[in-house]
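Ligand: magnesium ion. Inputs:
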Amino acid sequence: MLTDAVTTLSGVGEKRAEGLAELGITTIYDLLYYFPFRYDDLKVKAIDEIADQEKVTLKGVVVAAPIVTRFGPRKTRLNVKIQIEHTVVLVTFFNQPWLQDKFEMGDEAAVYGKWDALRHTLTGMKVLATQNSEHPSFTGIYPVNKHVRQSWLVELVKQAYDRDGQNLPEMIPDDIRAKYKLLPEQAIVAGMHFPQTPEQASAARRSAVFREFFLFQLQLQALRQQTDATSNGLMIPYDNQALKALIATLPFELTRAQKKVVNEICADMKAPTHMNRLLQGDVGSGKTIVAAIVMYAAVTARYQAALMVPTEVLAEQHYAKLTALFQGFPVNIALLTGSTSTKDRRSILTGLESGEIDFIIGTHALIQKAVNYHSLGLVVIDEQHRFGVNQRKILQEKGLKPDLLSMTATPIPRTLAITAYGEMDVSIIDELPAGRQPITTTWIRKNQFRQALDTIKTQLGLGGQAFAITPLIAESEKVDLQNAEQLFADLQGELGPQVSVALLHGQMKAEEKDTIMRAFSDGEIQVLVSTTVVEVGVDVPNATVMLIMDADRFGLAQLHQLRGRVGRGHQAAYCILVADPKNEQGVERMTIMTETNDGFVLAEKDLELRGSGEIFGDRQSGLPSFKLGDPVGDFNSLAVAQQVASQIFAQDPTLAQPEHKMIQRYLNSIRQKNGSLD
Ligand code: ADP
Ligand code: MG
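Predicted complex:
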C-alpha cells in the first residue's frame, strides 16, 4: 500500500530508514514522489563533437592499467587510459581510489566526466556499467545524504514503483487534466524517475510542476475559505452616483488601469465577503487617487475609512492632498500621527468614536489601543511592506473586521504575489498616466562626479530641483550622517551661495524633517541632500534630478523607488547613479537600471540576481518554497493552478462531488498532519 512505511521494502534497515526520513521520505507514497532535481545526459558522443568543459560519457577499451598516485594527505589521483576509435584518452578520477577495481585491461568501460578539449583528457565523475553498458544514458540526480546513495535510491524507487505504482490516486480532476494536457499520476511518476530521453523528462516535469502548484493552491483556497467563513465580512453598499461626482471633479481622466482596479475593489467592498486585497502599482501610477475614491465609497455607505502610511511626512502630504480633493464634499477628514498635539488628539479620538470623523489619515498611531472607531469599514495601508507587523491581526484583536486594501509600489512579480500573498486578491495598475516624462538614468563612476554636477546645474538653471541621496551603509548612524554631511558640504561648495541646499537625515526630529520637506516641496530649497528617508511616497513634481551616491549599496527595488521620486511633473527628469561596484552583480544592477524604467522587469531581474528570499525581508519564512516548480520560470503553470483551484472551491465549496473526493482527502490528511491548516 502507498501508506506503508518504506521499511516494508527490501533492503531498508534502520540506518537507511533514518537517512530516508531525513529526506522527508517515510512512506511508499513519499518515495514515489521524491523526484530528481536534475538529470544527467550520459549520451555517448564522438570525441570531435564534444565541447570544452562539456559533461559527457565516453565509451572505449581500457588500454593501460589504472594507476593510483597519492599527493598530500588523503588526496589521490587515479589515472586510466581508454582508447576510443583511434584516440587514447587519459581519464583522471580524484579521491576515488576504490574505482581502480572497476577497470580491467582489455575490457570495455563507460565513464562520465568533464571534457578538456585542449588536452583531450576527461576528469572522471563516475564509472558507468562496464562491458555492455546497461546503464540508462539519461538519469535523474536526487538530493541525497550519507545514508542514502543515488544508485541505491534509484533501485528502491523501482522496487516501490513495481509494487504500488498502479495504485496512485489521481489528484487532478479528469477534465482539468484533459484540458491542460497533463499526464496521469502513474505517468508522472514513471516519467520523472525513469525517463529515457530529455523530452520524456520534461513532459513529466511539466505535469509534476503543475501538480505541485495545484496542491499548494488547494491549501491556500481551503485556508481562505476558512477565513471567509469565520470573518463574516462587511457589505458596503456605496453610492455609485456620488463616486462618479467625485471622479468628475478630478483634473485628469483616470487611466484604464485605475478604472479597472477601482471596479475590482468596489465589487469586493459591496460583496459580503471580507476584502483582503493587494493593490500593486509602480511608483507614480496613481494609487493615492484610487485609495481616495474607494475610501469615499465607504463613507457614502456611512462607514469610516482609514488610510495608514509609514511616515509622518507622507501622512501630512496625503492629508493636504485629500483635504483639497474633498473640498465641497461631505467628508470630515482628520490627521492623526505621533506628533499630533495632546489636545487635538483627544478631540480626534472622540470624533472617531462618535462617528463624526469619516476619514482618518495617519501612521500606525491609527490602530493603537486607545483608538476606537464608530464604524470602521475600510482600512487602506499604503506602502504595506514598510509595516513589519500583521495589521490585520492587530485590527482583529481590536474586534474590528474592516475590509482591507494594502497598497505597494514594490513591484512583486504577479507570480510571487500569488504565492507569497496567496490569501490575498491582487489588483495591478499596469500603466502610468499619459504624458509622463521619461526618466533618463545614467550610471557614472565616482571619478566622473563632475558630470553629475553639470546635470544638476543645468536642471537648477531650468528651474528644477534635485534630490541627492546617500545610503545608510555604515554600522553606525554617525558615519552615515558624516557621509551625508560631506555630500551636503561638497554640493554647497560646488553650487555656490545662490543655490539653497538643505540636509535631511533620519536622526532629525519629526518637526525638523517636516519643515525641510515642506520647504523643498514649496520650492524654497533647491537641492535636498538626504539619507534614504525620502524614499517613500513623497510627491514633489518640480524635482527633476535624483542623484544617488554609492548606488550599488541599494537593492534594485529601492533604487527604483528612489528614481520614482522624480519625473512626476512636466519636465524631463534625470536619475544619476554614482557607483564603483565591487562585483559583477553590482555592475549588472547598475546596468539594468539604465536599461529599463519598468518596475516589474526590475523585480524579475532582482529575483534572478539574488533569489526570491530577500525581497520579502521578514516574510521570508512565510514564503513557500517549492520542490520542483519555480514561481518565476513556471509562472503560467502557477497562475493556471491558482485559477483552477479557486474554480473548484467556487463550484463545490464542500468538495462533495465525486471528482473532488481525492482533493478532500488530501486536504484532510494535511490538516491532520499540521493540526490545522493555519
Ligand atoms: P503612487 O502610485 O506612486 O502613489 P501617486 O498616487 O502619488 O502615485 O500619483 C502620482 C501623481 O500622478 C500624482 O501627482 C497624481 O495626482 C497624478 N495622477 C494620478 N492619476 C493620474 C491620472 N490618471 N492622470 C494624470 N495624473 C495622475
Ligand atoms: Mg503612493
